[in-house]
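Quick start: what a row looks like.
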Amino acid sequence: MSDIRIATAEDQVLLDKEAKYCSYGDTVHYIEPPRIFSRCEGSYVWDTEDQAYLDLQMWYSAVNFGYANPRLNNALKQQIDTLPQIASQYLHKGKIELSEMIAVDAKKKFGLDGRVHFNVGGSQSIEDSLKVVRNATNGKSLMFAFEGGYHGRTLGASSITSSYRYRRRYGHFGERAQFIPFPYHFRGPKGMTKEEYGSHCVQQFARLFETEYNGVWDPKVGQSEYAAFYVEPIQGTGGYVIPPMNFYRELKQVLDQHGILMVSDEIQMGFYRTGKLWSIEHFDVQPDVIVFGKALTNGLNPLGGIWAREELINPKIFPPGSTHSTFASNPLGTAVGLEMFKMTNEVDYGAMVMAKGKYFLEGLQDLQKRFPIIGDVDGLGLALRCEICGPDGFTPDKATLDYMVEEGMKGDMVVDGQKLGLILDVGGYYKNVITLAPSLEISYSEIDLGLKLLEQLLVRATKR
């Protein structure tokens, strides 16, 4: 175990100011002292001592295309010199063309006409989706969502997020959710294949509609008390849990039978994180609403939004003024979003991500064979998980993962003569899962480097 790192005098001055002047409401210090960063490029960030860190979480998947991506940065710079600002009630070319690009793509993939509505980020777009859903279902405010699901921390979004911690001090404001078990096969009943467990979870959900006394369905009028099911096709904060491929197809059949909408939250898994534009594409279903954010602008601008079926969002049913944000559809964000689509359409981006993800997953599987504390690894594209457990390979071990995160941030590991740190993200129901979301532009040599750094952390953890 290496020595505890001490902040430089310059950093300590800044940390003292933070302690006095900054709200901690949006801040979690995973290590002490916290690092202060000064620059970034590609898959790396550097602190104020110019120590490099390989980043395998990329701002919670907001920077899918690498830090300081030259092409996307240049799109932002060019827009600043032409039309940097315009009120969202006025039109500009970027808003129209970006909406068209998303809607035409959805029509091609899902066979559905739809429209796009922008807002300033993921949680805010979840709020807009709740308005669309409630408006289309005569004001129903009850939703289904998953255990382990995360949809944001605004009042509406936190009410459909399964962690009570996010709403304990604030109560509910309108929406309420019933949380349904997610097919988390590694921690599911033994003796079932992954697909069998997926079907089992759907069957348990379908039981809610068997009679009026199951609590959610009135068979006499054929109506449910619930408006929509909010899903993360692959759970994000819940630990990058990947369901069986049959799961959503079977779930959607139950929803369609009972007039319940499916809202696909793609905020963390969208824009090729899983090898497709939307992660729901892997599961052969048609969502009614898609919510997106984060990587649309590679983290350069807080632009998010929703796509919804024409029947839910056309101007007659969702008229002007239904929702509004001053900075929604701003020209800086839409310019970067358009360039992102152009960039990813020029090559087979999905195939590239799937190949890199397969390579990375094989490396994780090799580590799993050599380190018993790795209970489970899985991945789809470059959304990968590595679950840290006790010696039995199953009991969640948050303390060991916390230790690994702290050691990675010391910046004292050496690979081929290069001193490096490693940035990891922690997720999972028990906060014992490394959720790996590297840059989609990561090179194979950087994947190898990341695996070597992970191996050093695992050696430290098993020897401490």
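That is the whole record. The chain has 13 helices and 18 strands. The two ends are 7 Å apart (CA to CA).
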